[in-house]
Amino acid sequence: MTAEDRHEQILDITHAIVDAEGFHAATLNRIAAEAGVSRTVLYQQFGDLPGLFVALVDREAARAGTWFAEAVAQSPPPTDRDGAFTHAFAEVLRAVDAHPATWRLFLFPPQGAPPELHARLVQAQSFVREYFMSVLLSINPDLPDPEYTAHILNAAGDELLRLRLTEPDAATHERLLAHVRRLTPALLRQAV
Known about the structure:
This protein is mostly helical and about 190 residues long. Helix content is about 75%, strand content about 0%.
């Protein structure tokens, strides 16, 4: 196994433990045993346990950021009123279904998470709100308070994604997208 493959394998094992049981369960001994390596390999790859956690958080933040950027890039132009939001949300839903552990990490930060997780979460939320504000302002440059409207859209989107992760049988794509289609025009009325 190459060093890069081993690096990814260790991150995958760590992520699986964290996703199932939280950061407190991801000890160096357990990760090394499940990876079939010595603790020395972990130290060589990541420095220490906090370094391993930061590497995991950074990898998953980059993945989620890429998936969000791809969802936004595939959306209709902002002049399509609520279509841009609905389409982007549909694409993010697909990413959540394809990679639930990544999204759980950020939508349900486990206890004992390193501060870097919360810092990446703040950065991601800021990025999402900037996207929302740019769409809102392209619809109406005189929008009274695009910042707060973006906060509302971000909070609503996060909650709907949480529902998808916790209640997948009830929170179907159809149901969630229908809700986004109903919610978005109500929020955008102030933008008309």
